[in-house]
Amino acid sequence: MPHLTFAKFIFPSLAAMFIFIALPIVSVVYQSFFIEHEQIMQEVETCDPFSCKTERRIDPEAMIALRAEQPAGRFNGLGTYTDSAHLAFDEIARIWRASPDILTALDRITDLPFYRALLFTFAYTAVVTPASIALGFFVALAVNQIPKLIRGIVVYFSLLPMIVPSLLGSLILFWMIDSRGIIGSSLQVLFNDPTLSLKASPVLTWITLFSYGTWNSTPFVFIIFFAALQTVPRDTLEAAMVDGASRWDRVRFVVAPHLANVATFLVLVSVMDNFRVFEAIIGFSAQAHASSLSSVIFNDLRSGDVPLFGSAAATSIMTIICIALLMSPSIRRTWISFRAKA
Amino acid sequence: MRYLSSAAIAGLMLPALATAALADCPDFGKGSLRLLSNEHASVEIAVDRIAECATADFTVKANLNTEHATIQGPALSVSPSEYNVVVLANGSLTPLLNANLVRPLDDLIAKYGDQLNPNQMIKINGKTMAIAFMANAQHFFYREDVLEQAGVPVPTTYEEVIEASKAIRDQGIMQYPLAATMIPDWSLAQEFVNMYMGRGGEFFEPGSAKPALDMDKAIATLEMLKEMSTYMNPDYLTFDTDAIVPIWEAGEVAMANLWGSQASSFLPENSPSPEIAENTRFAAAPSVGGQGVPATTVWWDGFAIPKNIPDEDAEIAFRAMMYGLSPEMVADNPRAAVWLIKGYEPTPAAKGIVESVQGGAPSYSMLPYMSLMHDTFGANLAAFMTGGKSAEETISDVLRDYETSARQAGFLN
């Protein structure tokens, strides 16, 4: 394609990406360097139906004037990034000095709000991504074997987890694993333990969230693999059969290499998707045992009467950095193979 | 929803009456009522009453939404504001006052507010900024029959609640006799706030946003919450009111601390299991630590009128609300809420709230930094409840996180 034509085709998409992705990210970076103005307080007498008392309240007029002067707030530099709600350098130093060994230190560090969220987010991504890709691959292989007549229906039902809004899906599962629900009470019978509760133990909650995540993201993987399977060259497959290759050999030596590029794409997309895990934690009311970077951002933005925009912005930026780091091996490989082709 | 449907059925069956009601409608003027509120059955009643008076010149639009507190700031910041009435509570008035988004109502009260009780007026420095119309508090719900069967008196302190739970469990009546709204974040923290204030604890240094927790009282509160949790269903950390109502109706819980605004759904005429509802009783929140004051915070719900609307719009909104929240409405719906409106006589469903207020329970703080403290407890208490942290560690984490977010929010340096 001539370069000019290519540029014309890509321009609208580039413009949209600049306006809707790049600019907002710049503004988030900017916001992360600021915190709220120092609140100007005044004493007021407050009366409610039950009593009267003198209380301290924010002086609204003074604050409005202050905000008009400097809308972003007070400059805090990298202070927000290093405070105890984020990278917590001071706390880590203190824990490091006070802990007898590395394991205790690590245990205490992963109790800090940011690292706790980071740990869960990484664990979720590390488990759900390979699990959903493997599962999606096998579902695609299986569906590909089904006679064409009923294949459409099977494909439709396999896609259901993706069609059901994920918050709804998690709520339905949440009720099923309740100790009164069908899964929860079956497990109690199975393990002969009437106090078994999937919601009460941190480990079981994590497993539940991972399983739910796999269930939820498998259909996307499946449908992409299923489409790619239609392009596997028949000739090669038949040649392999003539050579006496078993079904497993054909999958391993013909189908899998053919799907390698698709798999790379799926890893990229799934990692990005899974790193933003959020609905599951809300849907499963799992805040007691799990928090993700997204749920930390959400909490900052809904923090009582004063949304902590700076804090949320700092966490967002660190999320972006983490995703970029996770992406880098894949992107590097794509780049190398691109260079090799060129 | 129940109220809405019964109102709808009444409207279908008695068109004659409806026309009669229409005839009583005052003329609010040419304009509209645009109301934003939390989901409250009582607000629905008031809105329905106003909506009966809707004409071509006067329209009614209500947004009853559990996310009302998130919407209200942005919606009122634009001029003219999208809504001309916001229904709010102790906590949600604070951000609107901070941003100077609501108007003083004294002129409107002088013109149209004869029906108001003096204590309905929420005054800030002598100016009425909101009109309260109902009270709410978490209080004690119990099953009289179960307590009798276990041979224990009705608990009036949390220490007795634990004894009664033990008796019920030991006699094999119920495995998990106790319930509370302990879903982490706001509700779990609210349990702490209630009980810590019930012990006479303070959160801040006077006149400052600096935290000043009483360590002994805070730790005693945490230990008691944990001890109570051993008598609760193992899933208690996922329980909000909606999760507790069905297990109460299934007869699996004997005692709970729940919101008074939910009490009417526990009454025999509204409950799907009347035999349990008949034995359900309400009382003031238990006291704790020998303080003798109900360990709960009392809340008011009321309405305010935005600053960024024309005066005529505000006048129409105020008159409509006065009609919707009139003593006649209370006379028709005495059980729907603990009304603060003239002519209200407490009903059996109101017993818990009324006794809590009379017992001297404090109202929930309107300090602007209280919500940050509350949220910090919400984020940290779960780790303590599940045994991941000791009480001391939890309190020190709370102080650390509170100071960080208070600094972010500009309350501390």
Brief account:
Chain A is mainly alpha-helical.
Q: Can you describe what's shown?
A:
- The complex is a heterodimer of chains A (342) and B (413).
- Chain A has two domains: 79-111, no CATH class; 114-341, MetI-like fold.
- In chain A, the strands form two sheets. Chain A has a two-stranded antiparallel sheet with strand order 1-4.
- The longest helix of chain A is centred in the middle third of the chain and has 33 residues, at 113-145.
- In chain A, β2 (41-47) and β3 form a beta hairpin.
- Chain A has 16 helices and four strands.
- Chain A has 342 residues and is mainly alpha-helical.
- In chain A, 71% of the residues lie in helices and 5% in strands.
- The model of chain A has no long low-confidence stretch (mean pLDDT 89).
- The model of chain B is unreliable at 1-21 (pLDDT under 50).
- Chain B has helices at 2-13, 15-24, 41-51, 68-77, 90-98, 106-112, 144-150, 158-170, 186-198, 215-229, 241-249, 274-277, 311-324, 327-332, 351-358, 370-385, 391-408, and strands spanning 31-37, 58-64, 85-89, 121-124, 127-143, 178-180, 255-259, 280-283, 298-304, 338-339.
- The N and C termini of chain B lie far apart (47 Å).
- In chain B, β1, α3 (41-51) and β2 form a beta-alpha-beta unit.
- In chain B, α1 (2-13) runs parallel beside α3 and α16 (370-385) packs antiparallel against α17.
- Chain B folds into two domains: 2-135 and 298-354, Periplasmic binding protein-like II (D-Maltodextrin-Binding Protein, domain 2, 3-Layer(aba) Sandwich), CATH 3.40.190; 137-296 and 361-408, D-Maltodextrin-Binding Protein, domain 2 (3-Layer(aba) Sandwich), CATH 3.40.190.
- β2 of chain A pairs antiparallel with β4 (121-124) of chain B, so a sheet runs across the interface.
Structural class of chain B: alpha/beta
- Name the chain pair with the biggest interface and residue counts per chain: A-B, 52 and 63 residues
Give the SSE order of chain B as H and E letters.
HHEHEHEHHEEHHEHHHEHEEHHEHHH
Number of strands of chain A: 4
- Radius of gyration of chain A from CA coordinates: 26 Å
